[in-house]
Design a protein that fits this description.
three-stranded antiparallel β-sheet, 6 helices, globular, mainly alpha, about 150 residues, 3 strands
Amino acid sequence: MLKLILLCLFWFGLMSIPSDYTTFITLIAAVSLSYFFASMLRIPIYKDYLNFYSLKYFCWLLIEIVKSSISIVKIIISPKINTDSGFAWLASPANSELEQIVYANSIILTPGTLTVRTEKNALLIHFIDKALLHELQGNIMKNKITKIINISAN
């Protein structure tokens, strides 16, 4: 129930002028999309993935998004900065499909990186700067996601 409330609050934040009609549509969409994607991804609805560690990860991810955005803006503004963009395979969490999905989407949310392809145990990543790739190779994000999923599974 808490997840639905947070999803609704997020959607209300995206709306410019909430009205009775948009509030009703948001509630219907939040409930139906939550159950639709949970069943599609084979996520048991009774499991509570929203815990202290997931909130901590969300805050950490927001900070990483801001830091990456600043570095991308520096690259755009300063033509003298040499970027070393390219593709690289990155090991992904092999414990579950859910971990891989969260990991791939977290990489996409981080500016300057993009998940191009997913395989069973690896993700093909496009990066604008090698520094962004080195941060991902540090496995900080992967370890945080694995911790959330493992704690929620128990």
